[in-house]
């Protein structure tokens, strides 16, 4: 809408006016601590931003819709083909072919030791009507050769197919920890492969710079960007050294970034990569062209507990990747962490994209984040931080030397430790796992239970590095829930904690709810009641509950007059340990002498407390 004559009649609000109003609400509290967030890279996230002026738009490789890609990863070739055809008939227009032993296969993946195996897995799939991306990990070159041979056997012209062969030896090195030959030999093979493909008329993407290994290891947004850029730059150099022009090499590259549930940073990260790679192209003397950018929703954010919440996470991630300009998106089914997803989970993954495309019409606006002050500021900040990290990798001799020295792994490990601390204290809550858990949830169907997925480098690796771990952030809490499940199977009851609610309902409800949520995040069932004002009734109720643990819950006012007596009563009744919901303040010494062993509150080390509580409850 261009007619702003009415708005012109009102004075323009200033940031200073807004800050003055905010100061009145904060009542002396620190603005930067209360309202300014910070990413793992230390980037400030302000509560409001002014309109960005003169921002350049980010363009996809092809204008319009992004491609809806579905994983083909069933170990049985016939079933893999059946599921792939179901996805294509249901609205997908791309497939991601995940092979056995690829890190992303999670113990599944198609068995494709020959062209015939691959033909069976893609039986009925018309290669000339879809986009196909290979995801073969350390077997990328062999699988690429199989796919090219299959296409030729079926009579296709390679120039007419939309293919990403997905060869990423550096990603394989980072994830698996080894290369079977020296990097010079890898480079020679890459160069020969590209020569052969070019002679056959192939015009797809042969190589990919993939950020998943770094993201799954706990990397920040800028660290993932820097690793992807450093990988792409290494491929440029290696292939140029093999006689290929830089222009030909860049057209042989695609990129893959991870989309997670942080909308703002995901949008900014995808936009930042396009800007950063354009900067690399300019430094190489090339006029920038749009890259092919794939997205996959984050394995790191996927949970086993209350997996239905994964639908919300992947919806936000898909939205963000689409807004950020991804050319193709692969959504991990919501049951991916539980095993091999069934047709229903695959349909939900597929329809997540279709709804955003067809009903929300996200694709109809090119780079909708352009000009938005928040997105532009975060994009700029990520570009600056990632470029600085790229320069650091370059000073170390490039990404391969950085991996060999372990410095890149070390930096990511530091970030991972910071995130693990935030998860442990619930500063970064995980809905359905560390927050609002459902310990009575029922099983969710999968085609196959989780399979063993040991990442193995070649036994005769010529280059070895410390492999990056693949970690889901919810795993620590899930391990506690697994212990609770084992106790349930053994005793036909869960470990329990008695909530010693003091006073009227209005006094204890808030903290009793907090305590229930707190303990059940570790699989410890909370025994609820209507509250107590009599010590004998409290003692009798605790004994009747047949629990070992208790937690006093009420208001600060009631704590001041009754918490000490309640703790002594519970101690006499045999409760050990005794918790209190809330910070102790200046009464910690008095309450501890009365028998209270641990105080639980927002920001405490939830994992540590729950681990110790489970040990006591299950003893």
What does the model show?
The chain is α/β, with parallel strands linked by helices. It has 22 helices and 17 strands. Helix 21 links the parallel strand 16 and strand 17 (598-600). Helix 9 crosses helix 14 (373-395), helix 12 (309-324) crosses helix 13 and helix 17 runs parallel beside helix 22. The longest helix has 23 residues, at 373-395.
Provide keyphrases for this structure.
alpha/beta, 22 helices, 619 residues, globular, 8-stranded parallel β-barrel
Q: Quaternary status of these chains?
A: single chain
Mean pLDDT: 94
Q: Strand fraction band?
A: 5-15%
Give the helix/strand class: alpha/beta
Low-confidence stretches: none
Largest sheet: 8 strands, parallel, barrel
DSSP, total strands: 17
Question: Percent helix among the residues?
Answer: 40-55%
Radius of gyration: 28 Å
Instruction: Report the principal-axis shape.
Output: globular
Strand order of the largest sheet: 3-4-5-6-8-9-10-11
Number of helices: 22
For the termini, the CA-CA separation is 68 Å
Blueprint (SSEs and pairs):
Layout lengths: L14 H12 L4 H5 L1 E2 L5 E2 L21 E6 L4 H13 L4 E5 L16 H7 L9 E5 L4 H14 L8 E6 L1 H8 L1 E2 L3 H17 L5 E6 L1 H5 L4 H21 L4 H6 L1 E7 L3 H21 L9 E5 L11 H16 L3 E3 L12 H17 L13 H23 L3 H7 L1 H18 L38 E2 L10 H17 L4 E6 L3 H16 L4 E3 L7 H11 L3 E5 L2 H17 L5 E4 L6 H7 L3 E3 L5 H12 L2
Give a short summary of the structure.
The chain has 619 residues and is of the alpha/beta class. Helix content is 47%, strand content 12%.
